[in-house]
Design brief:
By secondary structure, this protein is mostly helical. The protein is about 70% helix and about 5% strand. It folds into three domains: about 35-125, no CATH class; about 150-210, no CATH class; about 215-330, no CATH class. The chain has 13 helices and three strands, in the order H-E-H-H-E-E-H-H-H-H-H-H-H-H-H-H.
């Protein structure tokens, strides 16, 4: 009987110890549930809810004990996780205000609440479908040419890099030899000047071809315009329409010389002949007569220069059009 009573007392002591331990742990669990863990992370939405809860508590004029409990429930900082990165918001200022009576605590919480709400409004759905939005943007037409470098582009980049290294090896050591560097500089400069001079010379020579007759083409001034037309038709029968247009042009010049519209001077260029008709001087017979010859001679000169000097191909239509211009100058072709 004594042994049974002893066992019962031991069992009652164990049960009492567990009850006391459970009661001792209950406030800690409650405090942890009412507050926020120190290492807890927030999203913009959850931090908005937390700040709204704090604002509601502070707007009710809590007592000093409630402010102390609220201060103790705050972590050292709030860690906010967004798609752009993680941000840390310190709670030290809010804790100090709660310790001194909460003078600016409510204003600070309201300001932080407005900031997080404005951020959430500007970034409504970035965390969920950021990849889908990126794919939609890259699928637009302005990004159609964006692609990884091709094999040719990679080869070209490597070639440029190799040439850069080669030039650096050649010219990189010139700083150690100043005289050699000066000699190379003057050689490159003279080569550049020579190239520019050669290009200007060829350009001026090509322009002179349009404004002057070659020395091998001094025209026989004793031929009449009828003889020139006969030569043009003979060349046309041989399908040499370039020579036909050439002879037809000089037939028109000979015709105007017979009319004393142009001087008998075959050293002038086609452009100079045309200027004498457009701006008659001592060789004019009448202003009205010269005006009638201006348009056909201008057309004849333009076609002659295009075919004879610019080496453009000539066809039967060019020769026929030239004959029409000769008729306008007064040449009887029939």
């Amino acid at each position: 009987m004594k042994r049974f009573v002893f066992v019962l007392l031991v069992a009652l002591q164990l049960i009492g110890a567990r009850v006391v331990l459970a009661r001792a742990q209950t406030p800690l669990t409650t405090t942890q549930d009412s507050g926020t863990p120190l290492d807890a992370g927030y999203t913009p939405e959850s931090l908005t809810a937390e700040l709204q809860r704090l604002s509601n508590v502070l707007s009710k004029n809590p007592s000093s004990q409630e402010l102390t409990a609220l201060r103790d429930s705050l972590p050292a900082h709030w860690t906010v996780k967004t798609s752009e990165g993680n941000y840390s918001i310190s709670c030290e200022f809010l804790k100090r205000q709660l310790t001194t009576g909460g003078g600016l605590a409510n204003a600070w919480v309201d300001h932080a609440l407005q900031e997080i709400q404005s951020y959430s409004a500007a970034h409504p759905a970035r965390d969920g479908d950021a990849r889908a939005q990126l794919d939609k943007i890259l699928a637009a037409s302005e990004f159609s040419s964006v692609h990884p470098p091709s094999a040719w582009e990679i080869f070209r980049q490597r070639l440029y890099a190799w040439l850069g290294r080669l030039l650096y090896r050649i010219f990189g050591g010139l700083s150690r030899y100043p005289i050699g560097g000066q000699i190379l500089f003057w050689i490159v400069l003279l080569a550049a000047v020579g190239f520019i001079a050669l290009w200007l010379f060829r350009f001026l020579v090509s322009r002179d071809r349009m404004d002057s007759l070659p020395s091998s083409e001094i025209i026989n001034a004793s031929r009449t315009w009828q003889e020139w037309i006969q030569m043009a038709r003979e060349a046309a029968r041989q399908n040499d329409f370039r020579a036909a247009v050439h002879a037809a042009y000089w037939a028109g010049i000979a015709r105007l010389e017979d009319l004393d519209v142009l001087p008998r001077d075959r050293t002038k260029t086609p452009r100079e002949y045309l200027q004498l008709v457009i701006r008659p001087s001592e060789h004019e017979i009448a202003q009205t007569a010269n005006f009638a010859y201006q348009e056909p001679l201008a057309g004849l000169t333009k076609r002659f220069e295009r075919i004879w000097y610019a080496n453009r191909p000539a066809a039967l239509e060019d020769f026929q059009h030239t004959l029409q211009l000769l008729e306008a100058l007064g040449c009887q072709l029939k």
